[in-house]
Design brief:
homodimer, 453 residues, alpha+beta, 8-stranded mixed sheet, 43% helix, 19% strand, globular
């Protein structure tokens, strides 16, 4: 019983100071989502396992947290299944915890399709759970912040999302680079070199150029079964250099024969031109090797990296053509992004990017030196709160030093001292905890003063 | 596959309109918590079952959602347990979902006690899960909003919490009655009538006076094993009438012999006097039959009822002397309240108490009539957002009627029409969707206009 309690590995408690920092991030993202006209939804933490299973690949199925059926859960289950845990689990568990926000969103859209006005601009900020092996920066419970527009093919949506990303990170003061690609360009390259079925292999290999060099990339392509002819045809693509516009032109010239490749380049051009016309604070680069979620995205692919840390991708997204097909509603296309709140939190902590007042709770603390003094202080405190000033009273009658120590530890910037003398004058002594200065004020004067701080 | 997907019974999806209403409630509670100097924490959705089991009684243990261990969960578990589901569950599940916010908070305090500055004023707003039978107003996933002050015996905390309750419901525009009691008064009554071990029975019976009358209450007390002498001694208590002050005086006279009873009355007096001096908008009534959480509370007991509906208790709380003893840290006393957000949501919906602008998302929607027009519109939209006006653009080039229909369905109050003619003049036609009025404006003029709305 007296053993010190703990929490499951990979999960976290958040202290008031941590919550203040996290709220700063979540509020910033939420404010920008709303500014851009996205509307919030929430879905339950628990989904039916039939909704979740098979949506994240075989590995994903294993990482789902499953919830044991209530009551007599072995009833009507064949005891022979004891030696087949996977099958047994599917019999004794009907529900699982949300693994991401995308599948529940797809389920939401299909379930409520008659109530939804399309195009549907939704955002969702909720935790997800994965039974992954915990390690630095990887948790079993973490937050995702997703914004999607579904039911619209227009590339205006991509332009809007890139602006939204720019606005969020500008507000958070995180310098970023946005990488852009288009799945159709990848398909075009594979088609052009005569290996359309090898698109994934080609992309994976190209992705390593900066690390291992062209020679090693070619060796890897050979290993992955590409013909010498295909590899030879790929070389001009690998040698493309220059700025985004010039790389697009070179790609365009090379992929001239591929319908899908040309379409991908046209889409990239339209998005990049649109964004540049509006002005973007972040770097925006074409990255032909960018392939995140390749099996899922069908057009634009977006990835955001923080420039001043090694933390890697902190936001990503793209366009998909068939979000809800798996739930029986085909033809719903959309585009979305997901902010990795916990990674952004790590970046903000590493670079210490929080505004100075993020941690501030109460602006003023009243002292307690006796029942009458406390009663007088409570009246003044009530007036301050009515004026919108967050404040508290040290609840116990205690020595001045103890009360001051608390205010100090809580980083409360002002202490309102109400002793016998102040009480008799109907005033308070407002002490600035930074400068040590102290002023005898009426509560109305103190309110004016604190509001200006 | 084409079967329409659903969610587990007792859980809910929240649409944008529902989220807007819920956020209004949560933000109000959160703002008042912060105004009163409470600081937010969060704990994981999953706790070790060893933390949760045995804390909510036998019935509570059954209502915990248990999470199946990952991987080969039957490994090293005795297959003989198949016929003992309770024992088996404890072997194949190590974690469970949070059942309330109190036990995780107690666990948090003990685990982090060296980092916590006492008195600790924390608030916490998170969902909890219970495998209860779902019914109207009872869900398997619902939110609790708790505020507690721990590490302080002062009744100033009670006064503050009552003020906080008053402020929250005043802001939400819900008329309430606050019922107040003190466990020590209940103990005093039981002591005075010579049946200290029957405190719970006495309280349960007294609670029914209004419904069944004194005669039936007495019959029930007999059934519960109270002696005729005890019942006779109890009669003066049952006959107490009048306002709170006069009832307190009558109680005081009757319980004169009981130390604990006198203490309870003194505490009630101090709290009631303190609150009344500060002024309370809500009704505040002594209710000697109020006994919620009797096994848990040791002093003040608080319950809040909405006056204009039948929904019953929407907030409750009280003082406890030993929150963390079960985790090996005795002597930590505190007082707290819990707002039942989902019940408050039901009250707000029933009485339709939301401000008119609760549902508002975008303030303006720009039209799309062609690529050039959209590009011009995007520039104007960007300026509006930079001025803090939430807005969106209909992403697809579509007929006017379709775009207007969307704006209407989304309750967007203004539509900015940018056709060829407006584009050439560098202006927009701002249409008021309520009056139908339309004005040709520059974007700066439109911003001024929209900011004044």
């Amino acid at each position: 019983m007296a053993q010190k309690p703990s929490i499951p590995k990979g999960t976290r408690d958040f202290s008031p100071a941590e919550m203040a920092r996290r709220n700063y991030i979540f509020n910033t993202i939420r404010d920008v989502f709303a500014l851009f006209g996205f509307r919030q939804i929430e879905t339950p933490a628990m989904e039916n396992l039939s909704t979740l299973m098979g949506k994240y690949g075989e590995e994903g199925d294993k990482l789902l947290f499953k919830i044991l059926n209530s009551g007599d859960f072995t009833n009507k289950v064949d005891a022979e299944l004891w030696n087949e845990p996977v099958k047994l689990a599917s019999k004794i568990c009907e529900k699982g915890l949300r693994y991401d926000l995308t599948v529940p969103f797809a389920r939401f859209v299909v379930q409520h399709r008659n109530d939804i006005q399309f195009p549907f601009k939704r955002f969702q900020i909720q935790p997800v759970w994965r039974a992954d092996r915990p390690q630095k920066g990887r948790y079993r419970e973490f937050y995702q912040c997703d914004a999607d527009i579904i039911g619209s093919d227009s590339l205006v949506n991509e332009i809007e999302l890139l602006q939204l990303i720019d606005e969020v990170f500008s507000r958070l003061n995180i310098r970023i680079a946005i990488k852009l690609n288009n799945r159709k360009v990848l398909a075009g390259i594979a088609e052009y070199i005569g290996a359309p079925e090898k698109m994934v292999d080609i992309t994976v290999a190209i992705d390593k150029i900066d690390k291992i060099g062209i020679e090693n990339v070619n060796a890897e392509l050979r290993e992955r079964g590409l013909s010498e002819e295909s590899i030879a045809k790929l070389q001009p693509v690998l040698e493309i250099t220059g700025d985004t516009e010039s790389r697009l032109s070179q790609l365009d010239a090379i992929l001239g024969e591929s319908e899908i490749g040309k379409l991908g380049i046209a889409e990239l051009r339209e998005v990049i031109t649109g964004v540049k016309e509006l002005g973007l604070r972040a770097e925006l680069d074409l990255d032909v090797s960018l392939a995140r979620g390749l099996n899922y995205y069908t057009g634009t692919i977006i990835e955001v990296k923080a420039l001043d840390t090694q933390i890697g991708s902190i936001t990503g997204g793209g366009r998909y053509d068939n979000l809800t097909g798996v739930f029986g509603l085909p033809g719903v296309s959309g585009v979305g992004i997901s902010f990795g709140a916990d990674r952004i939190y790590d970046v903000m902590n590493t670079l210490d990017l929080y505004p100075a007042d993020t941690l501030r709770g109460s602006k003023v603390m009243f002292t307690s030196f006796g029942k009458q003094e406390s009663a007088a202080a409570l009246k003044m405190l009530m007036k301050m709160r009515a004026a919108g000033i967050p404040g508290e009273i040290f609840p116990d009658i205690a020595k001045m030093q103890k009360q001051m120590k608390y205010a100090d530890a809580m980083a409360i910037p002002f202490v309102a001292i109400v002793g016998e003398s102040e009480m008799q004058q109907g005033k308070l002594n407002l002490k600035d905890m930074t400068s040590g200065e102290q002023h005898l004020l009426t509560v109305d004067e103190a309110i004016e003063f604190l509001k200006s701080k």
